[in-house]
Amino acid sequence: MRTAHPRVVLGLHRSRHERRLLTGALDLGVTALDTSTNYFGFRSHQALAKVAGDLLPKFTLSTKVGYFPGPDRTEHSLSPAQLRAAVEQAVRDLGREPELVFLHNPEHSLQGPMPHCRDLLAQACAELDDATARGLCGAWGVASWDPSLLPSLIDTATPRPSVLMIRAGLLVGIRTLDAAEALAKAWDLEDSQVWGMSPFGGSTRAPVWEKTDPRIFIQGGNRFSHAQAAFRAAFDLPRVSAVAVGTDEPAHLGELTGALAGEVDERTIREYRSLLRDRLRSQPA
């Protein structure tokens, strides 16, 4: 019997949306799938329904709304009407209601006076809250690449999401780590309601992973590959319950699920965060 891996979310950013990846994920016990309206040239939902519509009921599916195709480039909007239409279109394209819909990088549209931004965020969150109440999705959340502005915008009028997704891992700066934790606190979210994303900062082939050995962050780290160690460390930088990771190779996904057997060295994690903070303090203002 295969082991279920609810802590691993297969992310489809930059994915080719091939059926073999989804069948491979299921074979590995990875049953959480994350995409977005703007992935795969704004065709992710349609591609999934076409190549693996019969498989989608086997996944817990999350998607994101907030980016829209423009005449010359991709545009971002927190307009309630546009968000409503995007969620409704997602259901039609997928052929089913997703379990979770994220408000995608709301910070991209939050510019200007603080009261205006606070109202804009509250209205966008309220729209997704309403979509959940109408049965268009099982729950809603917020996915933020740069959450630094968001904690100051949360007040009693801002609906509370079920899940927060933020960057996680060894390449995340201390400002982002602090902001992510402050945002989770502002919404009174438990660790179990926080997901991480982009644990490798884009790619395991980036030069940084050849120059560093992340196994020092894992107890008995020599039992794991560098990629496994970096992936496992991402669950504690910041502390998250699941991590969304992208790949087109089931073998790579299988390697990462093997990292879940590892335990982080909490002392090393604390020391690393201290070093990040010291480095920030030493930078010129």
> Structural class of the helices, strands and pairings?
alpha/beta
* Tally of helical segments: 10
| N/C terminus separation | 56 Å
Query: Percentage of helical residues?
Result: 25-40%
Unreliable stretches (pLDDT < 50, length at least 5) are: none
Superfamily (CATH H level) name: NADP-dependent oxidoreductase domain
Roughly how many Å is the radius of gyration? 19 Å
How many structural domains are formed by the residues?
1
Shape: globular
- What is the percentage of strand-forming residues? 15-25%
- Enumerate the strands of the largest sheet in spatial order, edge to edge or round the barrel: 1-2-3-6-7-8-9-10
Indicate the topology:
Layout: E1 8-11, H1 19-28, E2 32-34, H2 39-42, H3 44-52, E3 60-65, E4 67-69, E5 74-76, H4 80-94, E6 100-104, H5 114-133, E7 139-144, E8 163-167, H6 174-186, E9 194-197, H7 208-211, H8 226-233, E10 242-246, H9 250-257, H10 266-282
Parallel strand pairs: 1-2, 1-10, 2-3, 3-6, 6-7, 7-8, 8-9, 9-10
Antiparallel strand pairs: 4-5
Helix pairs in contact: 1-9, 4-5
